[in-house]
Amino acid sequence: MKQIRTVQSKLFLVYASLITLLIVIFVTSFYLYVSSALEKKASESIHQLSLNISDKFDVELKGMDAIAGRIITSDNLRTYFFESTDSPYKELNNGRNISNTLFSITGYPFEFYQINIFRTNGKLIQFGKNFNISQLSPYTIQSQVWVNLTLKEDGRKTVIPPRITDWDQSNTIVLSVSRAFSEVLGKQHDSIVEVQQDFSVFQNLVNRSITIPGEEISQPTKVYVYDKNGALIYPFSEGIPPDQTYWNDVKGLANPSGIVKPDDPWIMPGNSTKPSEIIAYSRSEFSGWTVLLVESEPALLQPVKAFRNQIVLIGIAALLITMILTYYMSKGLTIPLQAIRKSIANLSLQTLPPATMPAPPSDLNELEELNAAFVQMCKRLEESLHEAVEARSQEIKARMLALQAQMNPHFLYNTLTIISIKAENNHQKEIVKMCSDLSGMLRYIAIDGSIPVTMEQELDYTVKYLDLMRTRHIHQFSCSIEIPAEMNQVRVPRLILQPIVENCFKHAFNKRPPWHIQITGKMCDNGWEIIVSDNGIGFDDQVLTSILTKINNTEPGIEVDDDFPHIGLLNIFHRLKLFYGDKAFFQLLNKTGEGAEVKIGVSDPRENIYA
């Protein structure tokens, strides 16, 4: 068997085994956790349903019992009910009073089906769906089993199981709550108030509780309701002996609610007809009824089985995808390693980039296949070094051009001559001011030109230059400066404003004074701009064409003849372009009438134009 030596094979086997183990552990743990949670949630769901149905039954029964309680405690109703009517007029008036009193007690709409108030001597009052006052046979009333049970409760409530109503021919199945009372408190109870409710109301409560919204077919959940004696309340099955199989499973349990599973130890063999069924029960303290929800365990745990199948499929798919990705990942990782060691050994600044090595035999270590990527890296390194050196050369060249264009010896000689004349005339304050301005200018241009300055600093340098020029051209020129304060902190290259002003004195003012220079600036939505204008002779057309040609056809760093007369303007354009790139603009034009203007600025600047 051939020994595994390649990095690709080792990476594939190690990562595939590790990821497979992690996926198996994760999928198994996740399934066990979620399936347990789903099983618990499913069991709790039917338990909650049983509690919900029991609570809804209690709400309905309590409402019926409350009506019965208000009736037997109404003094007016008791007076009218026990009043003897020996004439049709009294009987009619008494019936009207009873109807009005019952209406005031129950309100509208009716929350019940029918109210029956009767005495054991046969008097019967019906209110609700029908209103009637009639006299029945005492035997008809006393023969009802539930009537005797109600009388024995001595005024306490009695919940009567569903049955066909006893007092009319509608064959309506009703469920009722009754209480016994007497004419005088303390005497034997001989009268009963019965509040009936249509049994379909309780059926609807059950159906709405177990129906799942959005599904046409309801869950296979069976609902049974037993009274405290085990008689079947729901579903109603007249004449059919109730199935007490489920009742036998829960009747001896002490807890008022819970879940009964087939494997519970107290379930006796043979008690449940289907051992795979789960029973959730809830016993009401108010009515004594027990609500049972029965559902087969396979159906209840169907979501768990569906989840298990999905997890298995997802796990298999994840393993396959992992194998494929691991294979290609290991293969891709080893390709760049082919000849890196030899390339590094041959690498030097003089041999950038190194020569590409031939592909090694397939049985060698794949680390050497990185040579191709390494060669590309060296090429990029060479380009980066070239760009860095070129940028630095351009920076030095631009600075040298700026020094040459901005501080020529004639200006310095003239300034020193004026200072000496001032000294002879004993103008000390003016000499101090001129020396301060001149030293400030020299200090400004002596600082590293690659460091940007603020517009405020650049403007201050220009003002010093103008102050020195005023000592030379006394009362011959004026200058107005309108730069908004918001431009003071804009970052700009050094010496972009004063050379333009100096150009006015050198070329524009070849005419008799007075001369005027105007410097205006503004912030735009997408940048800033400064305009320097004068009232001089303007640009000659050939000169303007020559300058614009130089601007359009030369790149920063390209050497320009030192004898080019407008090298200062060209220098400004180059440094703006180096600093701002293609966002910088530089415009020269003649004004209508006399004079020229130079416009510099930035359109759509970089994110941070402030110092």
What is the number of domains?
Answer: 3
- Whole-Å distance between the termini? 70 Å
**CATH architecture type of the largest domain:** 2-Layer Sandwich
- What overall form do the CA principal axes indicate? elongated
State the major sheet: 6 strands, antiparallel
CATH class type of the largest domain: Alpha Beta
**CATH topology grouping of the largest domain:** Heat Shock Protein 90
Q: In order across it, which strands form the biggest sheet?
A: 3-2-1-6-5-4
Per DSSP E runs of 2 or more residues, the count of β-strands stands at: 19
CATH superfamily of the largest domain, by name, is Histidine kinase-like ATPase, C-terminal domain
The radius of gyration computed from the alpha-carbon positions, rounded to a whole number of angstroms, is 53 Å
Global mean pLDDT: 78
As a percent range, the share of strand residues is 15-25%
**What structural class do you assign from the helix and strand content?**
alpha+beta
